[in-house]
Design a protein that fits this description.
By secondary structure, this protein is mainly β. The protein has strands at residues 51-53, 61-65, 86-90, 100-104, 111-123, 130-137, 142-150, 158-166, 170-177, 186-195. It has a 5-stranded antiparallel beta sheet with strand order 1-4-9-6-7, with no helix packed on it. Strand 6 (130-137) and strand 7 form a beta hairpin. InterPro entries: ConA-like_dom_sf, MAM_dom, MAM_domain-containing.
């Protein structure tokens, strides 16, 4: 049956004039709320809702526009080919082999339906390490490796899709692993998360 209803936002003033309240980008759609869009990020402005965690590497994941500082590794622009767009990368200079850095998503609600995680990655360099995609079950505290990419993949961006299904809350982690030398910068761009299998 159809019901007519009204949604109201009530704003209550504080003690003085320094209590302005603002709203923006209100959306209304059929069905239950879906937080899948919270993982989408092109990194052109910031890290969106992703968090960079240092791990054992000297540097954490960080945003970059244009080329990475070291020659013979890293992209020259973002995944669209733009030198003005941004991406995130793991700088591997002044570090040691097998050191790690983590890019961690916000928590994702459990669902009986599968979701597709897609992203672009760039792994160019003769001493390239590995990029691992991991999900963490927040209830069982269990880590599951979904995908691993190892070694020099050439000076191009590659597209990757991974299907995720979890009945518990979880987080997605991109783990960068440094190779044997500084020519092992790893970059990620244009993460998207949508309903359905890949």
């Amino acid at each position: 049956s159809e019901h007519v209803f009204e949604v109201s936002f009530e704003a209550i003033r504080g003690r003085n004039y320094k209590s302005d309240i603002a709203l923006d980008d209100i959306k209304f759609q059929d069905g239950p709320c879906d937080n899948s869009a919270s993982l989408d990020c092109d990194f052109d402005v910031d890290l969106c809702e992703w968090k960079s965690v240092r791990g054992t590497n000297r540097y954490p994941w960080r945003r970059r526009t244009g080329s990475t500082p070291s020659r013979g590794t890293g992209p020259s622009g973002d995944s669209t080919g733009s030198t003005s767009g941004s991406y995130v990368y793991m700088e591997t200079s002044y570090s040691r082999p097998r050191r790690t850095a983590y890019l961690v998503s916000p928590e994702v609600a459990p669902s009986s339906r599968s979701h597709c995680l897609s992203f672009f990655y760039h792994m160019y360099g003769k001493t390239m390490g590995s990029l691992n995609v991991i999900i963490v079950d927040k209830i069982k505290k269990r880590y599951s490796l979904l995908s691993t990419i190892t070694g020099n993949q050439g000076n191009v961006w590659h597209y990757k899709e991974v299907t995720i299904t979890s009945l518990n809350k979880y987080q997605v982690i991109f783990q960068g692993v440094r190779g044997n030398g500084y020519r092992s910068d790893i970059a990620i761009d244009d993460i998207e998360f949508r309903k359905g299998t890949c």
